[in-house]
Amino acid sequence: MKRVLRNPGNLLVVLGCAAATIAYVLDAQARSRSIENLAFIVPLAVAVLALCLLVLFTQQEPAENAKTKGAEKPRGGAANAALPYYCFGAFVAYVLSIPHLGFDVANMIFVALFVWLQSRRQPLRALLFGLVFGLGAAWVFQTILPYRLPMTLL
């Protein structure tokens, strides 16, 4: 528990996100309990709450503590500063390509590209993760939604 309370600012932001997610799900459920209306909301809320828990319990030490222990300084630079813009551009391309490539193929390409950008250009890991997660997520959404998504492989 000491690790969670190390940085109260992070704790407040994560608890605020979790509280807003829970309030939104409760409000959506109070307005309509049909499966079709909650098919996107509940899985996304579970994922957000799981990420909140992950952030709470995997916080790194603050930078000033890392410096005093002789840890290596993290590498910065223009490439790291531009990464959010690359990821946002990839997301826009993903959304625009769904009608043309299909949800499953667009999902695989986006996930592989995103993992490649995040994992220091390891192409095998990015391709495998894109294939497994992209097809898996497309299959899950296809089974839980009452209407057909545009697919190429599935």
TrEMBL record:
Residues 13-150 form the DUF1468 domain. InterPro entries: DUF1468. The keyword Transferase does not apply. Keywords: Membrane, Transmembrane, Transmembrane helix. The keyword Iron-sulfur does not apply. PROSITE patterns: PROKAR_LIPOPROTEIN. It comes from the Bacteria. This is DUF1468 domain-containing protein. It comes from Nitratireductor indicus C115. The chain crosses the membrane at residues 38-57, 78-95, 101-119, 126-145.
